[in-house]
């Protein structure tokens, strides 16, 4: 198992290298650069001055030098200065990464808490009214756009009923490190997390339902029944363990999806996470921030795949590293 | 009789096909005694596996109808609530499944799977369970039992897995074992080992075995009595020697005739004409085998064939056997549906 994890981790190095080169070139190919983004349309900065600034910041160096400089710094955790925010990118990201991790982990946990019982009920009692209800919910949630649903949640629970705060990640008046601070953070998470996870459940529910229906027919389930094992144990121990495999396999990908893709949720609930920063940075051509963010989400995908592999390996002893 | 373990009376197991129920097991009555191996033989689709699953209560209740009486040690299994049935199966009544490749849970170590019936039926400590499991593995002929205990099914060979399945069935010392084609999925040398093992275990435990198979060699090796099934019915029931030396029913005789012989010169392999009728199209009145022996005229069959006791413990269905002859026995007749085989 340890050997597997080490080998799988080593496999990530070439992947990350390739990713970084790709990102660097894509970023370079975008029209405009940080200088145009910062000074475009300002009448008091001339073209020569802009060129001078480029020269100062090394934006005119050959690509290999620029790439080397960038990746060397990145490895040390330095993504350079944000041209827009006028502060180190690392510093800019730090707080937001934390927020995004809070949001994604909470969303994931709530998603599974809802989806796994629903999938189990639908799979076990196929065709029952409960199953029909769950399948209908699945279709509806799959078809609902997140920005519509999130706005609705915001309007009803944040604005009309005023049960939960409608924006931000924490109240600025509470002191950091106290229990109240954590409580307030959780309160701020409720609406974004519910809006996200109520729509995210469909894939897990559908997978689990189908897997259970398929696993029910398997021979080893008959073996279990022939041992005199009760129906509940047959489902929880034998069928679920087998049916959970594809869901475990997707766990890693789900994590990456959440880290990279909560743009709508973060924007609607003005939640200061990575997604919003990403959009803002693209809008202002904040080159250093964009590359850092793309690199992080790309790395998250790679880490997610690795996590999936490791998790799958842990739940399914038949898996070998190919 | 006190020694009777299982009495099946007029069992009828019907499957739902396109909204209608068709019986796959059609009025079977049988008894199995302690220390007896009763073999059920018949070709694919004759209802023998459906019979086994009916006894174990493993048919899905929404698509299957099981009627009749299955009395095991004085209680009708068909009328027991599932919780009470679960107290019996796995403990006094156990089953060995057909395909060792699929009958074990792929994600559970072997030891845990063998311990599972003990969890349900016996009150043992973790240590006692493990001890018992290791003993069982040894009993089924697995030498490196400590290692196998920790292994997953995919790490074992087919023969080993079948041994594990047998160990699992024996976990709580059952008095009746249902073995559904226990050697079909194995290759021939392993088959012999597994049969030998089952015979040994049966002698030690004095358990009754209901052995389901299509392999007459297995029957000759293992069985005390044999029931031959055709299209959901028993057509002949006899002690094993009687059946092999004095087969009566046309189906039994055709089956025995179809065995390739290891001695003697090359000859045509006898093939029974036609196929078993599909369950939806089976004609349920009259002799069900009639369509496959068309050279026997209709008047020679009974209208409602019943089992006749023609000798002590030897039962045959329908009177047609009295007039039956195999095509091969008719000299020079090439019109029968034999297929040339070498």
Automatic annotation (TrEMBL), chain A:
Pfam families: BPD_transp_1, BPD_transp_1_N. The keyword Transmembrane applies. It comes from the Bacteria. GO terms for biological process: transmembrane transport. InterPro entries: BPD_transp_1_N, MetI-like, MetI-like_sf. Residues 97-308 form the ABC transmembrane type-1 domain. Keywords: Cell membrane, Membrane, Transmembrane, Transmembrane helix, Transport. GO terms for cellular component: plasma membrane. It is found in: Cell membrane. It is a multi-pass membrane protein. PROSITE patterns: ABC_TM1. The chain crosses the membrane at residues 101-122, 134-157, 244-269, 289-312. Its main location: membrane. The keyword Transmembrane applies. Belongs to the binding-protein-dependent transport system permease family. This is Peptide/nickel transport system permease protein.
TrEMBL record, chain B:
Keywords: ATP-binding, Cell membrane, Hydrolase, Membrane, Nucleotide-binding, Transport. It is a peripheral membrane protein. InterPro entries: AAA+_ATPase (IPR003593), ABC_Ni/Peptide_Import (IPR050388), ABC_transporter-like_ATP-bd (IPR003439), ABC_transporter-like_CS (IPR017871), Oligopep_ABC_C (IPR013563), P-loop_NTPase (IPR027417). Residues 6-256 form the ABC transporter domain. It is found in: Cell membrane. It is an enzyme of class 3 (hydrolase). GO terms for cellular component: plasma membrane. Its main location: membrane. SUPFAM superfamilies: P-loop containing nucleoside triphosphate hydrolases. Its EC number is 3.6.3.-. GO terms for biological process: peptide transport. It comes from the Bacteria. PROSITE patterns: ABC_TRANSPORTER_1, ABC_TRANSPORTER_2. One of its GO terms (molecular function) is ATP hydrolysis activity. Pfam families: ABC_tran (PF00005), oligo_HPY (PF08352). Belongs to the ABC transporter superfamily. NCBIfam families: oligo_HPY. This is Oligopeptide ABC superfamily ATP binding cassette transporter, ABC protein. It comes from Sporosarcina newyorkensis 2681.
């Amino acid at each position: 198992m340890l050997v597997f994890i080490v080998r799988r981790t080593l496999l990530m190095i070439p992947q990350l290298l390739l990713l970084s080169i790709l990102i660097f070139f894509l970023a370079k190919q975008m029209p405009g650069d940080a200088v145009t983004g910062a000074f475009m349309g300002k009448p008091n900065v001339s073209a020569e001055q802009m060129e001078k600034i480029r020269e100062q910041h090394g934006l005119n160096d050959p690509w290999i030098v620029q790439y080397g400089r960038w990746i060397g710094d990145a490895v040390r955790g330095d993504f350079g200065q944000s041209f827009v925010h006028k502060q180190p990118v690392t510093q800019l990201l730090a707080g937001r990464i934390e927020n995004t991790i809070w949001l994604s982990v909470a969303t994931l946990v709530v998603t599974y808490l809802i989806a796994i019982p629903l999938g189990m009920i639908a799979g076990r009692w196929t065709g029952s009214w409960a199953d029909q209800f769950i399948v209908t919910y699945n279709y509806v949630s799959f078809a609902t756009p997140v920005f519509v649903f999130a706005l609705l949640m915001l309007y009803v629970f944040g604005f009309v009923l005023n049960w939960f705060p409608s924006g931000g990640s924490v109240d600025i008046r509470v002191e950091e490190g106290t229990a109240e601070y954590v409580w307030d953070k959780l309160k701020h998470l409720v609406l974004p997390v519910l809006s996200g996870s109520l729509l995210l459940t469909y894939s897990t529910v559908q997978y689990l339902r189908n897997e259970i229906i398929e696993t029910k027919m398997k021979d080893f389930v008959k073996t279990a029944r022939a041992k005199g094992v009760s129906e509940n144990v047959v489902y929880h121990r034998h069928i679920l363990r087998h049916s959970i495999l594809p869901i475990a396999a997707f766990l890693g990908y789900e994590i990456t999806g959440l880290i990279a893709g909560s743009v709508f949720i973060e924007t609607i609930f003005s939640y200061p996470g990575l997604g919003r920063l990403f959009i803002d940075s693209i809008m202002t051509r904040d080159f250093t921030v964009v590359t850092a963010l793309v690199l992080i989400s790309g790395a998250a995908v790679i880490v997610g795949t690795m996590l999936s592999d490791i998790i799958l390996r842990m739940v399914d002893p038949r898996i070998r590293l190919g | 009789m006190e020694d009777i373990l299982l009495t099946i009376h007029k069992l009828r197991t019907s499957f739902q096909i396109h909204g209608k129920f068709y019986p796959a097991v059609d009025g079977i009555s049988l008894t199995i005694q302690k220390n007896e191996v009763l073999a059920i033989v018949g070709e694919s689709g004759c209802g023998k596996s459906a019979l086994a699953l009916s006894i174990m209560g493993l048919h899905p209740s929404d698509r299957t109808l099981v009627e009749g009486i299955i009395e095991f040690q004085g209680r009708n299994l068909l009328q027991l609530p599932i919780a009470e049935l679960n107290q019996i199966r796995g403990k006094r009544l156990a089953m060995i499944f057909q395909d060792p490749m699929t009958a074990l849970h792929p994600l559970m170590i072997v030891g845990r799977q063998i311990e599972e019936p003990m969890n349900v039926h016996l009150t043992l400590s973790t240590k006692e369970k493990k001890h018992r499991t290791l003993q069982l593995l040894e009993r089924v002929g697995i030498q490196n039992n400590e290692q196998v205990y920790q292994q997953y099914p995919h790490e074992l060979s087919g023969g080993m897995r079948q041994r594990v399945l047998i160990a699992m069935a024996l976990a709580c010392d059952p008095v009746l074992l249902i073995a559904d084609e226990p050697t079909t999925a194995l290759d021939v040398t392993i088959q012999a080992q597994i049969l030998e093992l089952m015979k040994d275990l049966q002698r030690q435990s004095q358990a009754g075995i209901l052995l389901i198979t299509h392999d007459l060699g297995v029957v000759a090796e293992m069985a005390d009595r044999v029931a031959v099934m055709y299209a959901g019915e028993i057509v002949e029931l006899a002690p094993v020697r009687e059946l092999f030396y004095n087969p009566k029913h046309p189906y039994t005789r055709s089956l025995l005739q179809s065995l390739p012989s290891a001695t003697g010169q090359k000859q045509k392999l006898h093939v029974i004409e036609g196929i078993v009728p599909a369950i939806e199209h089976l004609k349920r009145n009259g002799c069900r085998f009639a369509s496959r022996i068309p050279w026997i005229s209709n008047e020679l069959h009974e209208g409602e064939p019943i089992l006749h006791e023609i000798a002590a413990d030897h039962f045959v269905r329908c009177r047609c056997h009295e007039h039956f002859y195999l095509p091969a026995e008719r000299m020079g007749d090439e019109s029968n549906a034999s297929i040339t085989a070498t």
